[in-house]
């Protein structure tokens, strides 16, 4: 399969987990390289639904190896809990999951600070998942972070933690929060370290050796292009590089080892959390929510919904270098009489064919829509391109054409077999 980066083309929740699970069949190793437990990747195998937060979705396939890379921020307690949940469901983790010694930790004070800051922001909330992601990456950049290698260092860790707790308790006090107990956090960390120690390794060296041996690596992006700290709708973004480049820095695999980039996009658009969303449509949201769809996998929040935005998607194809796209949730549009695709914006009376850098400009953009007829029949049972109604094929070809990428996969339901491979 060669080394493949898979990224979300929108604001996350594009169905990356499902596509990763399908593509893992042809891969040897699946790698998470950024984000943390803010991710919620849903995979359905038979009757069982799994929601993965930190562990790569490849864990559900036997004989596949998984890596949590150096660029991920790891909440050790969330990871231990996720491993426990997987083992309870009969999924083998030991011997398959490799945890980077250099990954930064999300500590209890990060979670508390994330929540405190959100509460304080009042009208300007980001709508974070409150998993401590922003404060953990802030510590990494400030060079005050603790890493997995520290957590498993029994001798040095207590003093390092003590210093971090002291400093963060002072900050928490300014928010009116109770101080954290050093003794309690240390005891919890020791217990987590014991469970995680056997998984810890230098994943940079390990991964590169595997690549040298000809193994195929699949990089599982978390979040989506417009949540990228550099390329997203700042400040309504997450705190990592969610775009293709992040997979290299977050894993230690060089760009020239990458063979292809696959973008995953929904057949429409969703966003969970605050921030501009030009094609947002209450009508589409009501329809999808009434079908029991589009509720967040991590927080359960209803996702905001809107029409497919080809201006954003084309921009995503450009900055990620997408060779191919996978379009998911086509079946969500099955009942509509007419469909809209945003092909441009109107900003203060002027036409735009690109995403404006300024957040306020994007918020003021009015979408210019192209209308297409709906197909008004179920696509959920389609297994080949020819099975799809002509209207659906035209819709998909329009999306791919506007994005300038090759349509490779169409997903018509959450199950493994509800997947159409083209070519
Ligand atoms: P991720 O974060 O990108 O992995 O996406 P999520 O798992 O958060 O959200 C995607 C949701 O859509 C999940 O509930 C999936 O089971 C579901 N899903 C994925 N592809 C399809 C599809 O083609 N059709 C339908 N009906 N559901 C899908
Ligand atoms: P997956 O991998 C959708 C959003 C949050 C919020 C913003 C910042 O499942 O696609 P954070 O907790 O990261 O500081 O929140 O980013 N967000 C996601 N939205 N899918 C995700 O992950 C997300 N991870 C974070 O809702 O708007
Ligand atoms: Mg998700």
Account of the protein in words:
The chain is an alpha/beta fold. The protein has three domains: 4-100 and 200-262, 3-Layer(aba) Sandwich (Adenylosuccinate Synthetase, Chain A, domain 1); 105-196, Adenylosuccinate Synthetase, subunit A, domain 2 (Orthogonal Bundle), CATH 1.10.300.10; 264-421, Adenylosuccinate Synthetase, Chain A, domain 3. It contains 13 helices and 20 strands. It has helices spanning 16-24, 76-88, 108-121, 133-142, 148-151, 157-174, 182-196, 203-212, 244-249, 282-290, 310-320, 359-364, 390-403; strands at residues 4-8, 29-32, 41-45, 48-52, 65-68, 73-74, 97-100, 104-105, 200-201, 217-220, 260-266, 269-271, 304-306, 308-309, 324-328, 338-347, 350-352, 366-373, 406-411, 419-421. The longest helix has 18 residues, at 157-174. It binds guanosine-5'-diphosphate, 6-O-phosphoryl inosine monophosphate (IMO) and magnesium ion (MG). The site of magnesium ion has 5 residues, from loops. Residues 8, 11-13, 38-41, 126-129, 131, 133-134, 222-224, 227, 238-239, 272-273, 297 line the site of 6-O-phosphoryl inosine monophosphate (IMO).
């Amino acid at each position: 399969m060669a080394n493949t980066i898979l990224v979300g083309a929108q604001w996350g929740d594009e169905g990356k987990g499902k596509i990763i699970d399908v593509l893992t069949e042809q891969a040897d190793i699946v790698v998470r390289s950024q984000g943390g437990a803010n991710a919620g990747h849903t995979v359905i195998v038979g009757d069982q639904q799994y929601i993965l937060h930190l562990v790569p979705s490849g864990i559900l396939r036997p004989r596949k190896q998984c890596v949590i890379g150096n660029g991920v921020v790891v909440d050790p307690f969330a990871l231990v809990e996720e491993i426990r949940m997987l083992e309870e469901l009969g999924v083998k983790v030991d011997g398959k999951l490799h945890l980077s010694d250099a990954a930064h930790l999300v500590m209890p004070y990060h979670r508390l600070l994330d929540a405190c800051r959100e509460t304080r922001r009042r009208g300007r909330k980001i709508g974070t998942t409150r998993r401590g992601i922003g404060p953990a990456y802030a510590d990494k950049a400030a060079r005050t972070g603790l890493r997995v290698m520290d957590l498993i260092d029994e001798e040095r860790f207590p003093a390092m933690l003590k210093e971090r707790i002291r400093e963060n308790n002072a900050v928490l006090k300014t928010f009116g929060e109770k101080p954290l107990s050093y003794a309690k956090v240390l005891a919890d960390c020791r217990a987590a370290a014991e469970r995680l120690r056997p998984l810890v390794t230098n994943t940079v060296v390990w991964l590169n050796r595997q690549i040298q041996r000809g193994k195929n690596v699949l990089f599982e992006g978390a979040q989506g292009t417009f949540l990228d700290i550099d390329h997203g709708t700042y400040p309504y973004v997450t705190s990592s590089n969610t775009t293709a480049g992040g997979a290299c820095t977050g894993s230690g695999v060089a760009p020239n080892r990458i063979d292809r980039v696959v973008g995953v996009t929904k057949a429409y658009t969703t966003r969970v959390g605050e921030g501009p969303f030009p094609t947002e449509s209450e009508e589409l949201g009501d329809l999808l929510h009434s079908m029991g769809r589009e509720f967040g996998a991590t927080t359960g929040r209803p996702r905001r919904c809107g029409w497919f935005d080809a201006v954003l998607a084309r921009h995503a194809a450009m900055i990620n270098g997408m060779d191919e796209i996978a379009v998911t949730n086509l079946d969500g549009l099955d009942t509509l009489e007419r469909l809209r695709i945003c092909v441009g914006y109107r900003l203060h009376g002027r036409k735009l064919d690109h995403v404006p850098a300024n957040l306020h400009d994007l918020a003021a953009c009015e979408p210019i829509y192209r209308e297409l007829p709906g197909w008004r029949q179920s696509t959920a049972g389609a297994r080949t391109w020819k099975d799809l109604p002509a209207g659906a094929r035209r819709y998909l070809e329009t999306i791919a054409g506007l994005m300038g990428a090759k349509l490779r996969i169409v997903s018509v339901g959450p199950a493994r077999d509800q997947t159409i491979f083209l070519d």
